[in-house]
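Changelog note: in this version the structure field was regenerated for every chain. One regenerated record is shown below for reference.
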Amino acid sequence: MTIMNRIIFLGSGGGGLMVASQERKTGGLYFEFGTGADVFNFCLDPGPGALVHAVSLGLRPDKLKGLILSHNHIDHVNDANAIIDSISGNKESKDKNFPFLVAEQHCLEMEKKDGDYPAVKKYFQSLIKKLFAMNAGDSAKVGSLEILATKALHYTHNLGYLIKYGNLTIGYPADGSYYAGQEKHFEGCDALILNVPWPKGHDAPKNIHMTLDDAIALVKAIQKKPKLVVLSHIGPAMLRANLFKQEKILADATKCRVISASDFMELDLDALQTKVLKPVAKF
């Protein structure tokens, strides 16, 4: 059986307007390394639709090893509890490492009386066998998976992640504006996935989301450039600004290969080639 290391975009959209319209799906990312009995798979930022879309693509969320969460916003954590419930229902799993959960610490804590409840409810946290409450600079290791948490400038507690498995390195700065020094965390990535809801020249408030100008600044500052840059977490303004044009602007400015994600896009991490998957189950 051929080994495929891949990412599947359970959604390429992000933000409240996309959650409401589903013009682009908002289910986050599915990672899979290896194959067969040795497969290592997990979801990153499973927003609304993650569970249903995973089932529709035949990905068996009950067989996932775990989850990674960047921050407590609905388009990043909505389906986390449901997926943990699915995994915990898999009685065949005897491994003491799974399910695992890597999450920015505020996704796991009860805040002040007038604050949010934890993104992951205490009951579902109790079903996790390896739990990592993360701050910037922290690292976690589960089997062959290594995760480094990085600072992110968003308007809530938030983390980016550098994800390593074998000889593969994937960068995910998550939501937030570019800041000087951010680039040092993402040197030499095979794929760098950027959440860019705003196009070139958009006057977006700082420390909220990344514009294409932020993306240009980040990638230009990286010394050892990524092999591939993927634009995701697409918002309505980005969509209407002509995604192909935005890709070209970023590619011309950075001399990197740039693509934009689409719903159900599979990225082969070894060949760095893509295709769009068709659902195998209907609802």
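Spot check on this record: Residues 6-276 form a domain with the Metallo-beta-lactamase; Chain A fold (CATH 3.60.15.10). The CA atoms of residues 14 and 233 lie 4 Å apart.
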